[in-house]
Amino acid sequence: MVKKFNKKIETVYRVFSEEKVSFGVFHKTLIHLHTPASHDYKLFSNWTEDEYKAATNEQLYELFFNNKIELKKRFPMDELASSVDDSFFVDFKEYISYLFLAESILQNELEIVVVTDHNTTKGVEKLQKAVSILKANNRNYKYHPHILYGVEISAADKLHIVGIFDDNKKEVVNKWLDENLLSTEEGSYQHSLTIMNFFNENKILNYIAHFNTSNIFTKKAQLSGAYKKSLFSPTQIKFMGVNKAEVIPGLFNKLLRDFSCRPNFILDNDSHDIDGLDKNIMWFKGGKLSFQMFEEALLDYEVSVSLEQPKIEGNSYIKGVYVEKRRGNRSFLLDKSKEKDFYISFSPSLNCLIGGRGTGKSTLIDILQFALSQYCDKQSKLEFMCNHANIFILYVLDNVEYIIEVSLPDVLQENKDNILQYYGQNLEDKFSYHYIYNSLSIREWTRSQYTNVYKVESGKFKSIDKNKVLDKMFDRRYSVNELVRTADGEKITEFISDLMLKNKNLPNPNYGLRTQKLESFVAKLNELDEYRKQRKESILEIIDDFNKTQVGKLRICYEQVDSWEELRLESVLFDSDSLLSSSFDMTLSQVFRVTNVEF
């Protein structure tokens, strides 16, 4: 009995819509940015350093407010110049230069920016201040970027070493710079190895910048093999910077081959102007923006860092599950207070359930599977799930939101003899009825009687054809354990067929071969070759459709192998189970068995 619209659905949707994202997402990140604090900054890509140095306050003011007529009226130059906070900025020119850079960062929707000026950290606070000023005057910017501390130190061996650190280590770095720099223009008299040792001793992230442009592997570098061996030791180098992604494979192979070094690579933006902030973008996965989030993502590079913008394949995922509790403390899944309904949101990319035994991991997965597929393999599991009330799943399918509602019968509400009476058995309530648990009938009854699907349209909920949508939403998935358990036996074919061929059938061999002459038998074999070719094409078409959905996870391969064995005529002709003893009529499968051709 499908119930009428449940007002609880509105509550469930509101819960998931208003909940703050608590899982990690990918943040647009730029590493190695220069500010006007760098001696060679030029502001625009078509300017030289000298042109920037020669630019007047009036010239920069007019350029900044170009095409900003209303904003220019609000901030006349005299008033803007008098409002400059001299505790942050040296003069108006520096102030508006940082506004230029901050505006470009906001317009490029960068979320994390690592500032690495040449041999100084003074540009970080100034850029942070400029970003805050623009955000306060224009709330239409999508993000408030997190500006992180960094520095690019010019070493005596001509390499550039980048350090990235939290603001609580700013004084340690500044003290080292004061003691080890010739000047901010010339850099340090210390070699790269000494600089990196300092960073490592203070647990500061560091790497060699734009390494692919260095001449360290040439004779011009004049560095000993022992020095390079120490510099590129696996304990010394964790990261390496490059200015283009395509050089990474070659550099990695060389470092691995020559030094057993396996660094993760960072894309250096290295912009000295506001026009290059759209290049060499990286993506860091994490929750709330902070240096700790950035550092943890970098140290978990394989999972949390991407050199390309991540794509959510198919834009389909479970957004959240909501489970109503039963009265009388019968429900297992509850919120933290143990008094309210249970709900949990999911990430569109990667989710992991972690907890000790008995914390509800398996129960949650069982409930998700039951709500999506209506499949339950055991009566005891069904009885356990029915200790909860309604299940709601917010599902995004092809960028459209749906809510699945599955009602679980309250088995204590009526004096039923068996839970299966709620699922279509013994509706007449006969005495001594023999109940038989059948997962297929449970599935059919649950879908027809207890399941509703609603499409979310502008905050409204429209009831739709549930069968078509549910079949799209749920595929039988597999685990490594399941594959191992079935791979050694004959069940692997059944498993693959069940997994892959949903609503599809592989063509069965149906080529009949009947002949009494050798000449015609040869002709038939030619026909057989053509048949096998057509059969292979039809099977590969089905298999390829499946493989496209499982890229990087599972691949099913199909081949036809000609493996001819010597024909033992005595056994073929005279054994009691001989295929030829009763008739010369043979099916294709029998021919394959005789010749041992696999298909």
Protein architecture, described:
Helix content is about 35%, strand content about 15%. The protein is α+β, with helices and mostly antiparallel strands and about 600 residues long. The protein folds into 3 domains: about 10-305, TIM Barrel (Alpha-Beta Barrel), CATH 3.20.20; about 315-475, Rossmann fold, CATH 3.40.50; about 475-595, no CATH class. The strands form 5 sheets. Strands 1, 2, 3, 4, 5, 8, 11 and 12 form an 8-stranded mixed sheet that branches. A 6-stranded antiparallel sheet has the order 14-13-15-16-17-18, sandwiched between helices. The protein is extended and about 95 Å long. It starts with 7 loop residues before the first helix and ends with a helix. The model is unreliable at about 585-599 (pLDDT under 50).
What labels describe this entry?
Rossmann fold; 599 residues; TIM Barrel; 8-stranded mixed beta sheet; 3 domains; 6-stranded antiparallel beta sheet; disordered C terminus; alpha+beta; extended
CATH top-level class of the largest domain: Alpha Beta
CATH architecture of the largest domain: Alpha-Beta Barrel
For the record, give the distance between the C-alpha atoms at the N and C termini, rounded to a whole number. Answer: 48 Å
Strand residue content: 15-25%
The whole-angstrom Rg is 34 Å
- The number of helical elements comes to 22
pLDDT averaged over residues = 83
- Provide the number of structural domains: 3
- Shape, per Cα inertia axes: extended
How many β strands by DSSP? Answer: 20
Low-confidence stretches: 583-599
**CATH fold call of the largest domain:** TIM Barrel
Name of the CATH homologous superfamily of the largest domain: Metal-dependent hydrolases
Structure class: alpha+beta
**Helix coverage percent of residues?**
25-40%
